[in-house]
Amino acid sequence: MKLINNNNLKIYVLMVFAMLIWGASWPSGKIVGQYSSPNVIMVWRFILASSTIALFMLLFKINFKILKSSLTNIIFASICLIAYNYNYLKGTQIGMASLGGVIVPTLSPIITYLITIKVFNQIINKKDLFGISMGILGGIILIRIWEINVLELISSGNIYFILAAISWSIVTVFSQKSSKDIHPLNFSFWLYVLAFFFSLIFAPFDLLFNVLDNDITFWVHLLIISVGAIGFGTTIFFITTMRLGSKKSTSFMYLVPTSAIGLSVILLNENLAWSTILGGALAVSAVYLINREK
Question: Is residue 45 within 8 Å of residue 226, measured between CB atoms?
């Protein structure tokens, strides 16, 4: 008897590839950050991401209509998305991409859980409390809090990764609040469209088109963090969630820190610290424990 049918096998293969691209977005984010400021790069990222999602929506015949009931959530989520992208790009620009690729994907689900407890009045149980405690310990080890002061926290880029995790968690909560009213890809499309328009406020207009003169390396990695990570990766993640359930789709996210570390070592020659391995392992274990059914 086949344990996995052919259709599910295709989804699994695509999902693994999507998670590898999500991991690759961290070293790629550092590479594009050497060419321009985060304010400029995120404008182009939003353009390419929303265009790619629009193509998938046309392919799967998903309605572009936006509901008034979801508009407020999308507006606030888009503002937080700008904050996330700035911190993601700024953090990778001055810090270690491998560390960001561990801190954000592992701490964000834990922060999201803490926020949802308050927003949705959920009751925390002993298992989740233990998982949260483990996640906090993992976060402390990841940023090596015992050897840094406030200035070091900023100069190392770690503060930006922490802020990125917090802002992404808020985006996730707004997404969850709209999940009953709007298709995930519809939500994502309008999220990135509004983020594009809002981000224009912070981007120097005279520098926006200077990126057109950048070399092929810039454009390859910009496509990875926009078309690949957001357009393709997000779409595959949502398709997997709809077909296999959120529990199975979420489990694939444990591949992101591993691929982020591996690709950062390969592409950027970053050194792998023991604190990244231990802290990342604790944080990943915490996310698994929180998501595990009783």
Answer: yes
> Does a structural domain hold residue 1?
no
List phi, psi (to 5°) of 235: -60, -45
Is the residue at 262 inside a domain?
yes
The residue behind tokens 């604190």 is 275
| Cβ atoms 283, 135 nearer than 8 A | yes
Structure tokens at 280: 């990342």
Cβ partners under 8 Å of residue 272, min gap 6: 98, 261, 265
- Whole-angstrom Cα distance, residue 166 to residue 88? 11
Does the residue 13 lie in any domain?
no
* pLDDT one-digit tens code per residue, 194-251: 999 999 999 988 889 999 999 999 999 999 999 999 989 888 887 777 677 655 666 6
Q: Please give the tally of structural domains in the chain.
A: 1
Contacts of 186 (CB under 8 A, 6+ apart): 57, 62, 63, 64, 65, 66
Do 139 and 114 meet the contact criterion of CB atoms below 8 Å apart? Answer: no
Query: 233-244 vs 184-199: helix axis angle to the nearest 10?
Result: 150
- Which residues constitute the domain of residue 180? 18-291
Domain presence at residue 12: no
- Give the integer Cα–Cα distance in Å for 77 and 73: 6
How confident is the model over 47-98, as pLDDT tens digits? 999 999 999 999 989 999 988 888 999 999 999 999 999 999 999 999 889 8
Prediction pTM value: 0.86
CA distances from 288 to 57, 68, 215, 222, 285 (A): 31, 35, 41, 31, 5
207: number of Cβ within 10 Å: 13
Query: Of 156, 168, 167, which is closest to residue 275 (Cα–Cα)?
Result: 156
